[in-house]
């Protein structure tokens, strides 16, 4: 039975890449769904799929995040993982689709949940903006802020995996350093007219194809402007994703017993406990020497 993937907005569910990729459940904000209905829907998901992995942008409004935790607490279930992602909305959407692809594979729910943080490192995402005056999620210099007020200015911003910013035209439009692996690119056009992403960035990164998708509703708030073109380059092929996740060592959560990747459980959030605590040193050993004294010169 595949693990259910859930999101906080329908626009984070991109079209599937093939007929095997399942959809995702949507967990609406509290102003559009009463608490009892949210409880019933989430309970049904758990009963049907066994486990639910819910992903949402770290920029999601506090009231919506509080609703997610309230539902999980009222269900008294350790089978619901709530995972905030520190990516722009389109980056979240492509990562969600990757987990949807992997959910039909032979991975347990704990591995699937903790694979989100692994896969985030391989998503190259950013945007072209008309202004960075209200951009507060990526470091912006005072000089760039000043230039953003000049008419006709456009900036290319890379948010992940490493923040970068350049003003288009001032540096010849040279693109950022790109991924050193094959990717496909999703492009979401907002209220900005520019072909820099498809004509310059895509060829420079040697992307295997470009898919035009709708702009997520949260993008304008994340980037500080609706005049943008958002992009995300990602690993598109399921065999590559499967091999990547399979290559990581698996651990067992000492608290809930579920299998995981990395150092923290995606379901109970417990940190990974070292399998064998270090044995205490014998009195008088090197650890007992006064600071600044080496073992060779110890009395």
**Count of the domains:** 2
CATH architecture of the largest domain: 2-Layer Sandwich
Radius of gyration of CA atoms, rounded to a whole number: 23 Å
H-E string: EEHEHEHHEHEEEHEHEHEE
Output the CATH class name of the largest domain.
Alpha Beta
**What form results from the Cα inertia axes?**
globular
Tell me briefly what this model is.
Residues 276-299 are annotated as: Disordered. By secondary structure, the chain is an alpha/beta fold. The chain has helices at residues 35-49, 62-75, 89-102, 109-120, 142-147, 196-205, 219-223, 238-246; strands at residues 4-7, 25-26, 52-57, 80-85, 124-129, 155-160, 164-167, 184-189, 210-213, 228-234, 250-252, 259-261.
Task: Give an overview in words.
With 299 residues, the protein is α/β, with parallel strands linked by helices. The chain folds into two domains: 4-109, Rossmann fold (3-Layer(aba) Sandwich); 124-234, Hypothetical Protein Tm841, Chain: A,domain 3 (2-Layer Sandwich). The protein is built from eight helices and twelve strands. The strands form three sheets. The chain has a six-stranded mixed sheet, with helices on both faces. Strands 2-1-3-4 form a four-stranded parallel sheet, with helices on both faces. The chain has a two-stranded antiparallel ribbon with strand order 11-12. A hairpin with a 6-residue loop joins strand 11 and strand 12 (259-261). Helix 1 crosses helix 2 (62-75) and helix 3 runs antiparallel to helix 4. It is globular, with a radius of gyration of 23 Å. The relative contact order is 0.14. The model is unreliable at 276-299 (pLDDT under 50). Residues 276-299 are annotated as: Disordered.
